[in-house]
Amino acid sequence: MPVDLIAPAPPRNDRPFRLSGRMVAATLVGFFVVVAGVNGLMMTVAISTMPGVDVKSAYETSQRYNGEIARMQEQAARGWTAEARLRRSGTDAVVNLSLRDRAGAPVTGLSVAARLEHPATRREDREAALAEAAPGTYRADMAAIHAGGWTLAIIARRGDETVFVTRSRIVLED
User: What are the DSSP E strand ranges found in 48-125?
Assistant: First the structure.
């Protein structure tokens, strides 16, 4: 009698797959938990890197608004002109500012500060006090400034009075 050398096939479970209500509910809940978790993570990262706030207190800024308008009118009445230059010096940057009055004479004896503001993060901002290198010409070095777009803010004071303010968008190239 012949011997069958082929092993018998294991029994098959021919039960068809059934999608139950509990499985659908668990899938939906799991999907929305994952979406909410990713959204929460992305919001946390976005807010911590760029809070979107330009001033700390909008109310306090609004209270100084009329004073700022008066100061800007006084600045315009002076007729001063400013020419600011920002150039590379290795990995650093050099800020040069020339201030002239209405007659073209140099404006001297000011305390001048410059601030380079990064458009994306305040952590990259740099400040420097400009020294008067020649009559009406102020200069400062700023360390480790990378190329790209910046806002150059300059504030000139005579004693406690702010006499000149300017802000301009600049591009610093390599």
Answer: 81-89, 92-100, 111-117
